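Researcher: I'm comparing several assemblies side by side, and this is the next one on my list. It has 273 residues spread over two chains. Same procedure as the others: predict the full complex and return the structure.
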Amino acid sequence: MSERLPILRIGENLLVSIQVDLDDQTVLNLQDDLADQVVKHGARGVVIDITAAEIVDSFVGRMLATIASISRLLDAETVVVGMRPAVAITLVELGLSLGGVRTALNLEQGLAILAERSTARTAQA
Amino acid sequence: MIHPARDTAAKAAGAGGTVRTQAITTSDDVVRARQLARTLAVECRLSLVEQTKLVTAASELARNTLVYGGGGQMNGEVVHRPGGRGVRLRFADDGPGIPDTELALRDGWSSGTGMGLGLSGARRLVDDFDLRTAAGEGTTVTVIKWTH
């Protein structure tokens, strides 16, 4: 049974917290929902919090990379926050380095990265 | 058969506790297979990193069983050998089988929509890996993660 994860809006950013053991369909739903919400709210940033995720396999890893690519095309930056050390070790051994995905250790630092980017944009404008 | 030496080790691993079985016929079953793998990893007292690697490998292999094998089952148990314990997981399906195992185990190769990291990645995450398959005869993958 697939479900839909809640997407929260904080200012110009969207926040998703992955807290359940996700089946593949829920992962795909999230990808679609985030793309919709980025456009709907004109979001500048997407934060995906995986603090509670015990594993990230190739399917979820690919989803993170895809979401980052999709949001980039929609003019939003994605930051993945809260990866556990054991998950990072496993991902690298699995062969997934998530090259195109920006990461931060926690939610606070993730939001700081997005805020910096936002300031830089305003300065340029 | 990919690793004759490793396969012998897999056979030599003595019977442990009871074998638990999880059918893999839906996407939810992949989640349940993952949970059973975690339960066994905790019972075996694998370290957190070893647990994470085993559960991740189980996730990849269970998905393969579902997506490429058309469904099947996972058997899991705690096994023992002199000086250590391990978790053995066996994924079996009656699907089309893998005609070219060398190719299937190569990074980046995929017959489906994945990234082609499932089989090769899972192999790197475990200690023992045994793949038995032939075109038309289904696929059985047996893996063991030992305590270190």
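Model: For your comparison table: Chain A has one domain: 7-124.
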